Amino acid sequence: MVHHRQQALPEATRTYTAGATHYGIQISNTTGNSFNISDNRIGHNSVAGTGAYTMAVSSTTLALNYVAIALSVGASAATTVQNNPLIGFTMTTGSTSSLGQGAWCGISVTAGVVNIGTVTGNVIGNSGADSISVTNSYASSPSVALVVGINNSSAAPVVISNNSIGFIIHNGSATTSVGFRGIQNICLNTIVISGNTIGHSSAAASISLPTPARPAMDRGWWASTIRRPRRRRFRTTPSQI
């Protein structure tokens, strides 16, 4: 069974007047272990899986951040994250967050032993109406609203496998920068990253960033170096990561 976490109807757009970080699913319990986060559809604005979960800000400088699945869990037994479609998002934000989870993040692990996609991969972004669109509205430069597919800063062992990250549109303006990281690991830990797809093997512009896009932030995964044309297509294989 797939559980749904979507925007309340009949609301088309939710406009926020205060900066905050919002979550689809959040577990903050470093003494808890063996959580199972599976088969959750997060996004859209209907239980039928249509439309977009739309978030906007009342001011162009308002720092609105979103994390679909955020985990800070125990390290005694693995928490599992499987088969969660995170699709159908549109967000405008004045966030300048360029570290960690960034302005928009699909899955973020900050503590604990976690297996992500090891049984059935998670899908972050999909084609058409199921895509993820983030716009940086902050009007001053430099500002970077980072979009991250999967973020890990846990010091415990983590496995990230078989996940698909793509069809992400990240917009800025002439005076702002945007950033994208498909998978990033920012902790010295035991981590396995294998068999993930970032972008699409054939669809053009499945990761779409405008110019200017800040070069240091424009990466399929944390340690790779990817040249930055105006539109890009990322794909990773087990041999690359």
Question: What overall geometry do the principal axes of the alpha carbons give?
Answer: globular
Structural class: mainly beta
**Taking Cα atoms only, what radius of gyration do you get, to the nearest Å?**
17 Å
N-end to C-end Cα span: 32 Å
Short description:
0% of the residues lie in helices and 44% in strands.
Structural notes for this entry:
- The protein starts with a strand and ends in a 20-residue tail after the last strand.
- The model is unreliable at 223-241 (pLDDT under 50).
- Strands 2-6-10-14-18-22 form a 6-stranded parallel beta sheet, with no helix packed on it. It has a 6-stranded parallel beta sheet with strand order 3-7-11-15-19-23, with no helix packed on it. A 5-stranded parallel beta sheet has the order 4-8-12-16-20, with no helix packed on it.
- It is globular and about 45 Å long.
- It is built from no helices and 23 strands.
- The protein is 0% helix and 44% strand.
- The protein has one domain (3-219).
- The protein is mainly β.
Q: What key attributes describe this structure?
A:
six-stranded parallel beta sheet, mainly beta, 44% strand, 241 residues, 23 strands
Give the arrangement of secondary structure elements:
Blueprint lengths: L2 E3 L8 E3 L3 E10 L6 E3 L1 E3 L10 E5 L6 E10 L5 E4 L2 E2 L2 E5 L10 E8 L2 E3 L6 E2 L7 E5 L7 E9 L5 E4 L2 E2 L2 E4 L5 E9 L5 E4 L2 E2 L8 E2 L9 E4 L20
Parallel strand pairs: 1-5, 2-6, 3-7, 4-8, 6-10, 7-11, 8-12, 9-13, 10-14, 11-15, 12-16, 13-17, 14-18, 15-19, 16-20, 17-21, 18-22, 19-23
